[in-house]
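Quarterly update, task 2.4: pyridoxal-5'-phosphate-bound model.
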Amino acid sequence: MDIRSQFPVLGRKVYGKELVYLDNAATSQRPLKVLELQERICRESNANVHRAVHALSGEATEYYEDGREAVRRFINAPGRENVILTSGTTASLNLLATCFTERYVGKGDKVVISQAEHHSNIVPWQIALSKAGASLEVIPVDERGELCMDEFRKVLDGRVKLVSVAHVSNVLGIVNPVEEIIREAHSKGIPVALDGAQGIVHQKVDVQALDCDFYAFSGHKIYAPTGIGVLYGKKTFLEEMPPYMGGGDMIDKVTFEKTTYAPLPLKYEAGTPNYVAAACFAPALDFALEAGMDDRIVPYLMDELPKIEGLHLYGNPAGRERKIPLFSFTVDGTHPSDIAQIMDKLGFALRSGHVCAEPLMDVLGVPGIVRASFAPYNTFEECCRFVEALKRVLSMLR
Ligand SMILES: Cc1ncc(COP(=O)(O)O)c(C=O)c1O
């Protein structure tokens, strides 16, 4: 399969230089099949879903539900009722934090997260738990960036109502030992939620085999459009938790005295959804299944980046098979945003700053990092050019 020709944006130039897009952990690019489906639906079938009897509404609803079915198959969820469509990982985690806390968390209770969480898996919990008189328990990471599993085991007491951790950190790029986390937590009767924003892209996720209780991710990081995401949940929790937002589509019967709610998954899907983006999950996930990463990229960068004088690479797991192609680093005597800005002028799109993980920056003792994250359409040649360009930029800055 000629991957690059499916991504028109990769052919463009920035500042007269060939674009090398290495900010995939923030947002990935979309293949032609996704772009074409988006356009076709908007041109031919635009209507509201689940509401009218007319043909266009039927087509829009079918597109929406086809997108959900593509997600269900991709993560091997038992049924469509387990797949809640949201606007993204952030929305999924806010839904979970609000509804789970309301139903299951009381005064003095705790939710366990790690030091390596994205703000989306910290702040929603702080908001919800503070209202409940509950608090966060934070598991540390070691100098390699690995979760301290001994600490994790120690904190699992009767007060812990949920463990909510990243499948893969957006800074460290390490696949966390989620099977072990789930096994340990379940042995104490504690459910586990995974922030899969990065994990879904680089790991085969089978929610039934994993036995996680919740799994959240975004479409735009896995070749689908922005504005769509998923919260997978086990049925018992989704049945027992209260709805998140009220409005159209999430109801069964409304009277001024009392309202009853729609069955799953619509109970959590108030209002008109981004059904076009949802439909695009089908071709986007097809691409994700077909396309593989160049497996030379991780070992090459794990070897070459630390050779650069003064460069500190964050996220060095004991086994390289647990490193995704995401590399965060700082370089002594330089500022991350200076590196990213000059690299941009050379055509390399990198991310810099705290990358929505300020508490982890504090742990690492840095104000921010530079991050290069790769997708299947990035070539090994681009990866080598990235290292050469970085060396050139550093020689200018130091
Ligand atoms: C680990 C992780 N969690 C959550 C998010 C938030 O995703 P979104 O902005 O798509 O809601 C991101 C995005 O970078 C992420 O990497």
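Highlight for this quarter: Residues 293 and 376 are 4 Å apart (CA to CA).
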